[in-house]
Amino acid sequence: MTNIDIRNLADRIRAGDRRALARAITLVESGRADHRADALALQEALGTDRQALRIGLSGTPGVGKSTFIESFGLMLTGMGKRVAVLAVDPSSARSGGSILGDKTRMDHLARDPNAFIRPSPSQTELGGVARRTREAVALCEAAGFDVVLIETVGVGQSETVVAHMSDLFVLLLAPAGGDELQGVKRGIMEIADLIFVNKADGALKEQAIRTCADYAGALRLLRKRPQDPDGFPKALTISAIEAAGLGEAWDEMQALVDWRKEHAIWDQTRQAQASHWFAEDVRHGLLRWLQDDPDTNARMIEAAAQVRDGSLSPAAAAVQVLAPLEKR
Ligand code: GDP
Hints:
globular, 7 strands, single chain, 3 domains, Single alpha-helices involved in coiled-coils or other helix-helix interfaces
């Protein structure tokens, strides 16, 4: 552990101090072992008695995510709610560059005292970004935020990862010709609770309405999910720029949340997610532990070479690495 005053930091976070929150998120994002110990002690001190509504939000670049977060966030703060915005940026994991997390975005919301905006942590792998973001969500809850928006783009596994830390998952789409409907992966349709067709304004309005009807039709074809009341998943049109349809969007979210809470689905989902992240942390820890063990690491490097040159199958190579450990 470092000499950070954990108790004091926890008190300031619980009092809603955004600088303390930012510092705590930096702590959970750190790869240093002493920081990790502090981060865990901090989370322990903060407790888990506060819950926010965690909303996952995805959409391709240009669809209007930051415009939506800005106007939706301002609507919520206008209603007296406190709103945190976090990001899971898979591009930062791959290249160090970023699709999200540009600091000039959402500048009105960023200046709102009831909002907190944090760009994606830069890590070398999506799993690392995700694990830390999930802890940042918990910190925002402890700081008393009512809504935590977790933004991502539809690249690779990032949507699934964000869905695993969200109570609701929203997919933002742009108006499109009918044949583009196939462009949305089936998997993402299956995890979306709400689809918002954005840019339903001006010349794009009619097209947005048609696109929305197409998606509503596609959603009806999906198998009914146990976590949904009648009529969900649902598609709506909105205009982030004109702040139109956002009240309805919020009402639909509330209706879904209320129903899930009444039917114990809210708690079940959170429990399943906690188990998921526990397993992820164990898996990750185990792999790291194996790589840090010189003998095992040497066997892994050797086996990997044999897999590459075809002299060993992947399955046999895994056994070769793991078998000596079984005797421990
Ligand atoms: P992001 O990449 O998903 O975050 O998208 P942005 O929020 O940066 O928006 C991309 C572009 O779409 C910008 O030029 C926005 O002004 C525009 N845009 C966003 N929302 C709307 C909307 O509701 N209507 C219209 N007409 N344009 C929008």
